[in-house]
């Protein structure tokens, strides 16, 4: 077996992974948040010009047949609205608005669109009061650029760890939203081949249809966006790596959601996601580093067994037959300042009926916990930050601080206690984030309106995260990035 879950202590820079049974005291209880520097970097954030992004090397070719793509946060992609891009507060509010929609749509998927076992049905309005208006923000947090067809046409794709299909907008467009590259035209591709209705591939997608002998697909997202079209085999190019016969949705009717990007690259746990289709070629293995906000660095997405880092702390992936796309992990508790928050382990449990549990999601920004757990976590954090001046709540956050007068502040660490022992202690910048340009920082967690917990991308930033689908493990570290 490849993964080795039993590892000794790993301590890297701000990322601290330990095994509690060895040394619960070997990670810090407090750390410094450089408030001033964070603000300076936030203000300095400069979106990439599209041409600039194109000039970045697509890939850093590495050994062992794995291939690496640059991952860019949408805030770094040039937008038509330059004012919004340069204003951190507006960017932040837009991101929270997308996040509320993302979480609402995830919860809808879990609840089958209605109430489920007495769980609260999520209302979009629950968090809506402080959120900016305008529904045209589009979703998708991280983008990669890949080539579609032969010759390859470069397109931006949203990556989504909770999705099991790869699709792009296609000509002829009955309905397409605006994207930054020309819409892919299968007539210009030598390798495009529609999937026939009788193909077994057609039955691996949800709700397949058949039209003129060709397999039709249809994906509806919880917020009302959708993509519909033809399922086809096509060649995808990742830098210099060419992958033939990937089943992709060629979407002729699309409403989005995915503004700017041509489509979506599903990295979920199901057989039709890119990871699932690569199967043998990469052994279900991929690894990513989400870029830190406020830095000009880009992140990376690497496929292949060779991408699995040596020295990561591995924890088992759990499967929920009700939601096979999602990567679940076992969480037993939370810690603040090295002290375990008083919540029952049961609150994070994935039940036999498929309720509750903890998913890792690239598309959700802010980590959500069931209300009881969130309240306990927040109260513990507040109790240990009594010396810091508070500010009123902002957007979905109820715990904020006015750090405008501080160069740096000492804050308690926040840790995830994973089932089986590993503890992931987050850098302060992953849980105390700037929400404007004047020094308001908020504790970046929120309550979930259901039993589901979601580990969001703000908390994952800067930490190398590796999925070993074949062996059923997710690894944290050892690198910061
Ligand atoms: C990126 O990939 C495209 C093809 O997908 C290629 O034409 C281009 O030269 C590559 N750019 C770099 C900098 O490698
Ligand atoms: C901005 O959007 C308008 C229409 O919405 C378009 O005509 C214009 O070309 C866009 N500008 C840039 C720089 O993308
Ligand atoms: C933050 O504190 C500074 C200095 O005490 C004050 O001038 C400023 O108004 C405060 N900001 C907010 C949003 O309360």
From TrEMBL:
Pfam families: TAXi_C, TAXi_N. Residues 142-477 form the Peptidase A1 domain. The keyword Signal applies. Residues 1-24 form the signal peptide. Transmembrane segments: none annotated. InterPro entries: Aspartic_peptidase_A1, CND41-like, PEPTIDASE_A1, Peptidase_aspartic_dom_sf, TAXi_C, TAXi_N. It comes from the Eukaryota. GO terms for molecular function: aspartic-type endopeptidase activity; DNA binding. The keyword Hydrolase applies. Keywords: Aspartyl protease, DNA-binding, Hydrolase, Protease, Signal. One of its GO terms (biological process) is proteolysis. The active site is at 160, 361. Belongs to the peptidase A1 family. This is Protein ASPARTIC PROTEASE IN GUARD CELL 2-like.
């Amino acid at each position: 077996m490849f993964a080795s879950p039993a590892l000794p202590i790993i301590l890297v820079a701000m990322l601290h992974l330990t095994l509690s049974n060895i040394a619960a005291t070997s990670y810090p209880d407090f750390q410094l948040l450089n408030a001033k520097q964070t603000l300076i970097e936030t203000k300095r954030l400069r979106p990439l010009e599209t041409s600039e992004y194109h000039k970045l090397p697509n890939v850093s070719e590495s050994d062992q047949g794995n291939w690496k793509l640059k991952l860019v946060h949408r805030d770094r992609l040039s937008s038509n609205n330059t004012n919004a891009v340069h204003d951190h507060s507006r960017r932040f509010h837009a991101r929270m608005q997308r996040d509320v929609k993302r979480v609402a749509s995830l919860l809808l998927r879990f609840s089958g669109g209605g109430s489920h076992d007495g769980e609260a049905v999520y209302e979009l309005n629950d968090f809506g009061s402080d959120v900016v208006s305008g529904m045209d923000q589009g979703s998708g947090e991280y983008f990669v650029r890949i080539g579609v067809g032969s010759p390859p046409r470069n397109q931006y794709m949203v990556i989504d760890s909770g999705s099991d299909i790869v699709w792009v907008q296609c000509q002829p467009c009955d309905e397409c939203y605006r994207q930054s590259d020309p819409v892919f035209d299968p007539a210009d591709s030598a390798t495009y081949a529609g999937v026939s209705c009788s193909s077994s591939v057609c039955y691996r997608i949800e709700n397949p249809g058949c039209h003129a002998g060709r397999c039709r697909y249809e994906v509806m997202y919880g917020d009302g966006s959708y993509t519909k079209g033809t399922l086809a085999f096509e060649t995808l190019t990742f830098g210099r790596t060419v992958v033939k016969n990937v089943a992709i949705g060629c979407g002729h009717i699309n409403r989005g959601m995915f503004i700017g990007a041509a489509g979506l690259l599903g990295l979920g746990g199901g057989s039709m996601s890119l990871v699932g289709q690569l199967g043998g070629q990469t052994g279900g293995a991929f690894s990513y580093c989400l870029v830190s906000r406020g830095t000009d660095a880009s992140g990376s997405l690497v496929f292949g067994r060779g991408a699995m880092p040596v020295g990561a702390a591995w924890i088992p992936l759990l499967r929920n037959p009700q939601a096979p796309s999602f990567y679940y992990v076992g969480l037993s508790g939370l810690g603040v300042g090295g002290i375990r928050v008083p919540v029952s382990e049961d609150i994070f449990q994935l039940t036999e009926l498929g309720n509750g549990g903890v998913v890792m999601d690239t598309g959700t920004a802010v980590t959500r916990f069931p209300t009881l757990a969130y309240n306990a976590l927040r109260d513990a954090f507040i109790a240990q930050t009594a010396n810091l001046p508070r500010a009123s709540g902002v957007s979905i956050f109820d715990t904020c601080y006015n750090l405008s007068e501080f160069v740096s502040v000492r804050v308690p660490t926040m840790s995830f206690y994973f089932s089986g022992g590993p503890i992931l202690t987050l850098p302060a910048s992953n849980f105390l984030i700037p929400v404007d340009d004047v020094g308001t920082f908020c504790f970046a967690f929120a309550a979930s309106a259901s039993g589901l917990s979601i580990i969001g991308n703000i908390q994952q930033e800067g930490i190398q995260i590796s999925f070993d689908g074949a062996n059923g493990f997710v690894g944290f570290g050892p690198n910061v990035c």
